[in-house]
User: Fold this.
Amino acid sequence: MNDRTRATLLGAVVLLAAGCTGTHPSAVTSTTTQSATEPPAVNAAIPDATRAQAASYAGFRAIDPCALHDPAAAKTVSGDQVDELLPDMDGLNQCVLRLTKGESAGTWTLYLEVGAKYDAGRRRNAAPETIGDRLTYREETDDKTGCDFARPLDGTSAIVLRVRNYNRGETTPKAPCDLGREYVQAAAAVWADPPRRDRGLTSPTLTLAEWDPCDGAAALIEGCGDGAELHPTAPFTCGARTGYGSGGRDKPKEHKKKEEITVSFAVEEQPLTLAGQKTNGIEYTALTVAGRNAVAAASTYGWRTAVVWDENTWMVADAKAENAPKTYEVVVIQTKSCDTAQATADSVLAKVGRR
Assistant:
């Protein structure tokens, strides 16, 4: 095991340490059978115009974003300590590394996203530079508290590192762009050949990351005929659209009401504890979806159901703290209709994890 892998797995407060999970890593098995060179499968309901992007997303899902982080390098370039390393609630293709100077004294936050949208327009507005012999784009935030670095993966996507310092009460010894540049340079070799999840460099194994959210969303358009399609918008987000064409095959001139339900795979901190609460006008209700515990949030924007994928596998930010909150993998289904939310979630979960 090299030093970088050891730092990722065994750092004192690094979240993905083997001792911080609900199951031992050896008990979490992978069902991934696709080889690194085999062309990724794309759901047949994805339109031709977006099939190439969907294939790219399949490749990005195989990359482990937390293994792209280098906690040891982060400590070196910042002079701070690692506070936590966690997948991000915005998607399993993202991972957050937080640094600190001590208890309750957070400093830098390093957000890393694999497969982020980074098209020609954004590249034109960014500053190109060479870091680790690779073309990298740099963008500084308007308030000078952050800096983004993007390493292209293809013509429209990139690995993006967002460097932020939210501790505005103290002067930092480095500007965000300077720290970010040093960090990207230190991690250049790893970024040049992004590590796949099946290498097992981080723990626990996120089994939900092995699946395509479009396969779950596909259950929602079965039998809908023309005008029904799948619309992937990120590696772990897919929309099921109906009414976007001329209507069903049996009524080709009838226009249907447009509707889109999104399915995404992410992580959330103790989502089930919200059940029965009402916060900021949002009511939370406990549900059982395909045999799994879930919590649904009702608001003026619609109905959001978060289904805990595996209650026996979790992550914690501080393994030494008693009663530290646990973070779980979740399947999130967002729909405008609360009347059909339960049936919608049941249909999605019946498909997720099936080949």
User: Anything to note?
Assistant: Residues 3-17+62-199 form one domain.
